[in-house]
Amino acid sequence: MELRHLEYFVAVAEERHFTRAAHRLMVSQSGLSASVRALERELGAPLFVRSTRRVELTGEGRALLVEAHRALASVRAGKEAVAAVQGLLRGTLVVGTEQCITGVHVPGLLARFRSEHPEVEVRLRQAGSAALVDDVAEGRLDLAFVALSGPAPDGVRLVPLAREPMVLLCHPDHPLAGTAGIGWADLGGEVFVDFHQDWGARGLNDRAFAAARTARRVALEVNDVHSLIELVGHGLGIAVVPLPVARKTQAAALRTVPLTGAEGHYWEVSAALPDDRRTGPAARELLSYLPSTPPGGTCQAEGPDPLASPALPASRSTPTIPATPTIPAPRTAPSVAAPAHPG
């Protein structure tokens, strides 16, 4: 089985289109089609169901895609290992991240890496934590910054980076805006804005409300931090979010309420990597740039340690910002007294 055939197959599988895959690979469409047909003949099975608009993977194609990703990742790691022995670092580093990650400034980290290792091509993908961890496990990503809501799958290890509390975010005119704190079980009758189920924060929320034996209605699902803040700002629902989201400047006009009884429900950020055997030299080098963690892997939070003092600081006046058509001028109410979090 030729490596080139696997590379072409993966491109078509990911693009779901032969023309787009050919452009991506910078090859002719006829040559790409011939390569895929040769692979199908070698395997004795169709890999795609073709139509005039797009192609879909067959069952055999889906099975091959998983192994093809792993094979290509192993080949890439092998090339990088040989280069490392020669004192070089080159190849490709594919990194994933969820939005609003704390404990690491991803743009600054990648900029430093690229400046010190210009021969390495750096690629970045943004998605929910569950999808990112799957990509690490299957060899599509070398490393990912995630907030995983459950245990890592086999073949993936987690390096803890930070831990933050969850807080309630609501419109200034919401009845809960002036409260000093509220429990998870007291939020059952509210309408929620939340992230898609692929996100680590969503998984954490679902588990926390289940532990509180409280059903809730998620009316609006988003895949974007800024969309969540905007929807809450228009009074369309409340949200339970990690503290760094509430610290963002876009949320300055909203109200933040501490959650009581939140022990054990923390937003934990980690670097997800393949097991030691499959971690490439470029990923190891990037990992060396990260802040060290104490023995035992205890997460370190930015700002006040939520483990030592889970309650938020005393309420203060919210900074005045220009009024908008949807959010009234801010007034004194409980808020997060912490510097804006980067990102």
Can you give keywords for this protein?
single chain; alpha/beta; Arc Repressor Mutant, subunit A; eight-stranded mixed sheet; 10 helices; disordered C terminus
Shape: globular
Provide the β-strand percentage band: 15-25%
Detail the poorly predicted runs.
293-343
Reported for the largest beta sheet, the result is:
8 strands, mixed
Reading off the top of the CATH hierarchy, the class of one domain is best stated as: Alpha Beta
What is the CATH architecture annotation of one domain? 3-Layer(aba) Sandwich
The CATH topology of one domain: D-Maltodextrin-Binding Protein, domain 2
Helix/strand/pairing category = alpha/beta
Keywords: DNA-binding, Transcription, Transcription regulation
Protein name: LysR family transcriptional regulator
Family: Belongs to the LysR transcriptional regulatory family.
InterPro entries: HTH-type_LysR_regulators, LysR_HTH_N, LysR_subst-bd, WH-like_DNA-bd_sf, WH_DNA-bd_sf
Summarize the structure.
With 343 residues, the chain is an alpha/beta fold.
